[in-house]
Design goal:
This protein has five domains: 84 residues, OB fold (Dihydrolipoamide Acetyltransferase, E2P); 92 residues, Beta Barrel (OB fold (Dihydrolipoamide Acetyltransferase, E2P)); 219 residues, no CATH class; 54 residues, no CATH class; 102 residues, Beta Barrel (OB fold (Dihydrolipoamide Acetyltransferase, E2P)), CATH 2.40.50.140. It is 32% helix and 29% strand. The protein has 16 helices and 33 strands. It has a seven-stranded mixed β-sheet. Strands 1-2-3-5-4 form a five-stranded mixed barrel. α9 crosses α10. The longest helix has 31 residues.
Length: 671
């Protein structure tokens, strides 16, 4: 009895503590207007009534005071006391003009107030125009929020509006503030002799870039020369963004807020203004550029004999596309063929070593859209990782690993120096067990006794399934067992790559963590070591923004897929089941890689289907018919909803029977 009372007392104390202080979390506002804030360390989220939002909007980071609970068993309630950070400040909607002022009515499925727009801030917009508005200030919930019109939408270009809305939904600004642009405008374009004097001058060494055909922001370059000692000197040269981007300026604050560039099918929403991304920092050919470099001496076995880290000045001799380099590798001829073939040979040796050291060899396919002048998709291409891509990938991985390894040795007050590592945890055991059981059904054994054994099993499985019908499904399910990579000062290593130390150093034009890495590395090299106590918060912010960008990129791709498949309503295609749920299954078309849902309701006329979770399938109760992940099926495109970014398919029995008949006929002919 006494023990029970003691337990109740502790719970009451815990509750009392939680109600007497502010807690921080992200507010999720439902369509009905109720808010919920999830707090780390609390078992349940906190309910926020509509009158207690205190200017918070959906997705904002807020501080909440928890109200006293009236009785046990009821959900905790709270009041928003402070908006710490807005998820988004730009919104799409309609302008309504009045005498002396205007109002902006947002297009949003989440409740939010109209925004007051002074006539001096309508930016040429007219009554009933569809506009993008930036929220400028909102002092208290009893006053109207105030904003300004950022741009007027072109009503004929629905694609442009859709892409902009995706970017804004993810919490990224479409334009840079005037203050940030003013800082950018003050950055000198000319490199001074005094700056060159401070750096290692490698302008006379053969240097080139290799990038996608449509790239404009060239982050990285490679230099190569053979040394008298027989080693190869390979320089990995990275745009020195941190030289131009001074800490705590308005431009730096805005770059940090974005934390990443967002790549949609028809545009890039950059982390830095275009002039910095594409001109000032971009390692364009035949121009002197400031870089931060990792220069390696490698022997013929691709072993590091020594390395140097520091600031440099380079001069790129040529700009290659991946396709051009791939052709040179395959044909063994072309501009700088000898150097490119040598780099490729070293890269493949490093790649082989990585996989021997339990890096996991997941293959990657990327869907790219061929667009017309209006941004409408007229074709779909599948981009695969070839040796040219692997060449760049391996040298970037090398630089990232060595920089992290170098900094990991530094101590401050007998503790590791805080540093933004890129980490990847071991696979999730709960997800791994059913996956291993599923793989067993295809005859693939999985050893889950240790992280090393799991990695070895994955690589063996990926090798065994290559080219087989189950390849796609097992790769997809395998990826889902993996933890998500993130930024943190806790250096637990990178499981997927098989590295003990790893960071992001090689893409500072498009990733803010790389800028943080450059700044800390420069401090280390100059022995000006200081610990950033807020670095873990910065890491978390960058990880959150990265996930938001990935979601936006997926949404952009999905929009284009739906837009493209609208041209094929009523047509039938072969597909592969890519996911299964209780309400239906998803199918990805073989020809276009476009995914749509076959609803379980559309299958009712054939049978009653039940979801078998352990077998990743729907099972017909009378017929025994299975729809399992990885199975090939025929579907008809029945709906393409651009607003919801959703494709609906129906299963085509006749198409499947025809395919089976065709396979049997082929078999008979072979006999």
């Amino acid at each position: 009895m006494g023990r029970k009372n003691s337990k109740k007392k502790k719970q009451k104390q815990k509750q009392s503590r939680s109600t007497s202080q502010l807690v921080k979390g992200t507010i999720d506002i439902t369509r009905s207007g109720t808010g919920f804030v999830e707090i780390e360390g609390l078992d349940t989220d906190i309910l926020i009534r509509p009158g207690d939002f205190n200017t918070a909007l959906h997705g904002d980071t807020v501080r909440v005071a928890i109200k006293e609970m009236k009785s046990s068993g009821k959900r905790m309630q709270g009041v928003v006391k402070q908006v710490v950070q807005r998820k988004r400040t730009e919104f799409l909607g309609t302008l309504q003009m009045n005498k002396g002022f205007a109002f902006f009515i947002p297009e949003s499925d989440k409740p939010m107030p109209d925004i007051f727009i002074p006539l001096s801030s309508i930016n040429g917009a007219k009554d009933r125009d569809r506009v993008i508005v930036r929220l400028l200030e909102w002092e208290s919930s009893d006053k109207r929020p105030v904003g300004e019109v950022v741009s007027v939408m072109d009503e004929e270009n629905t694609n442009d509006a859709a892409m902009k809305e995706i970017i804004m939904e993810a919490g990224f600004s479409l334009q840079f503030s005037d203050e940030a642009m003013e800082v950018a405008a003050r950055i000198p374009d000319v490199i001074s002799d005094a700056e060159i004097e401070k750096r290692k001058d490698v302008r006379k060494i053969l240097t080139f870039t290799i990038d996608p055909v449509d790239a404009k922001d060239f982050d990285d370059a490679l230099s190569i020369r053979k040394l008298k000692n027989g080693h190869y000197e390979i320089g990995v040269h990275i745009a020195d963004v941190s030289h131009y981007l001074e800490p705590d300026t308005e431009l730096d604050k805005e770059a940090y807020q974005r934390a990443t560039s967002v790549y949609l099918p028809d545009r890039v929403n950059p982390m830095l203004p275009e002039h910095i991304s594409n001109v000032l920092c971009s390692l364009r050919p035949q121009e002197d550029k400031l870089t931060f470099s990792a220069i390696f001496q490698l022997n013929e076995k691709a072993e590091i004999k020594q390395y140097w880290l520091g600031r440099t000045v380079i001069h790129s001799d040529h700009r290659f596309t991946y396709e051009e380099v791939q052709a040179i590798i395959e044909e063994k001829a072309g501009l700088y063929a000898e150097e490119l073939l040598l780099l490729n040979d070293l890269a493949q040796k490093m790649r082989g070593k990585r996989f021997k050291n339990n890096a996991i060899n997941f293959s990657s396919q990327e869907v790219r859209f061929k667009l017309d002048t209006n941004g409408d998709p007229i074709g779909i291409m599948i981009k695969e990782s070839k040796e040219a891509h692997q060449l760049i990938e391996e040298f970037m991985l090398l630089a990232n690993r060595v920089v992290a390894e170098n900094v990991s040795k530094i101590k401050v007050n007998d503790k590791p120096l805080p540093f933004p590592y890129r980490v990847h945890d071991d696979p999730d055991e709960e997800k791994l067990v059913p996956f291993a059981a599923f793989a067993q059904k295809f005859g693939h054994k999985f050893d889950t006794s240790s992280p090393e054994a799991i990695a070895a099993s994955f690589n063996q499985l990926l090798k065994d399934v290559h080219g087989k019908p189950e390849q796609h499904v097992l790769e997809q399910l395998g990826i889902r067992t993996m933890a998500k990579a993130k930024y943190t000062i806790e250096n637990i290593g990178h499981y997927g790559l098989g590295f003990v130390n790893y960071c992001h150093f090689t893409s500072p034009i498009r990733r803010y963590p790389d800028i943080l890495v450059h700044r800390i590395l420069d401090d280390v090299l100059h022995n000006k070591i200081k610990a950033d106590k807020k670095l873990e918060d910065k890491c978390k912010h960058c990880s959150d923004r990265e996930r938001a960008a990935m979601e936006a990129e997926r949404a952009g791709n999905k929009y284009k897929q739906v837009q493209y498949m609208k041209n094929f309503l009523g047509d039938e295609f072969e597909g592969v089941i890519s996911g299964v749920a209780s309400f239906g299954f998803w199918v990805e078309t073989v020809e276009h890689k476009c995914e749509g849902l076959v609803s379980i309701n559309s299958l009712m006329e054939y049978d009653e289907f039940r979801h078998i979770e352990t077998d990743y399938c729907l099972l017909g109760q009378r017929s025994g018919k299975k729809f399992r992940m990885g199975d090939k099926v025929w579907i008809k495109v029945v709906a393409a909803n651009l607003t919801k970014r959703q494709l609906d398919y129906e299963w085509v029995v006749a198409g499947e029977l025809a395919a089976e008949k065709s396979e049997k006929e082929k078999g008979r002919k072979k006999k």
